[in-house]
Amino acid sequence: MSRPPALPRRNSRPAVPPLPAFEALDRTHRMVLQMLGEMEVLLSLLESQGAVPEARRMAREIHGFFEGHARQHHADEERSVFPGLLASNDESLRHHVLRLQQDHGWLEEDWRVLAPQLEAVAQGYNWFELPMLRLALPVFRELYEEHIALEESLIYPAAMRREAALAEGARAREALKPA
Ligand SMILES: [Fe+2]
Ligand SMILES: [Fe+2]
């Protein structure tokens, strides 16, 4: 058996900066909005054709996204975005962050209603309840859209300003250190 050719050697290059966290958070928001739209398409498909293979595939994708990526996104915000803002002196900002934390709880509650239904569709079972999905989806969608709007218009910009101010303070302290 012949040996595979050795991979060409490449010169090492300087490390690139990590992807800014806020870009990743924004990207997840776009995915959330896309998945919410897909859920509407899925319900129409279930109504017209039932749990056909395309509906099962969509249900699997949507279920996996909200179980994993979306939930992790909330956890990341709770860990890295919200605490600094809750420590701020700006009462209205703190109030908005508390509202977003409450939203995370409510979104989780709403998702727990939708999740078993989507899981059933994904697995090809026919016991899903379309009228219930039709009622639950707009509630979930509206809350998510409001939540994302508040984060992108007020909370992420405030968090980025805070991050920049902290970095500036650290640079200023560093410059004052005796050589
Ligand atoms: Fe959030
Ligand atoms: Fe978010």
The count of helical stretches stands at 5
Shape, per Cα inertia axes? flat
The N- and C-terminal alpha carbons lie at a distance of 63 Å
Query: How large is the share of residues in beta strands?
Result: under 5%
Would you tell me the structural class of the helices and strands? Answer: mainly alpha
Give the number of DSSP strands: 0
Low-confidence residue ranges: none
Q: Rg from C-alpha positions?
A: 22 Å
Query: What oligomeric state is this?
Result: single chain
* Biggest beta sheet attributes: none
Average pLDDT: 92
Q: Which range best describes the helical content: under 10%, 10-25%, 25-40%, 40-55%, 55-70% or over 70%? A: over 70%
Task: Return the string of H and E elements.
Answer: HHHHH
Characterise this structure:
- Helix 1 (21-49) runs antiparallel to helix 5, helix 3 (69-86) runs antiparallel to helix 4 (91-122) and helix 4 crosses helix 5.
- The model has no long low-confidence stretch (mean pLDDT 92).
- 15% of the residues are buried.
- The chain is built from five helices and no strands.
- With 179 residues, it is mainly α.
- It has helices at 21-49, 53-67, 69-86, 91-122, 130-176.
- Helices cover 79% and strands 0% of the residues.
- The structure holds fe (ii) ion (2 copies).
- One fe (ii) ion (FE2) binds at residues 25, 29, 73, 77, 151.
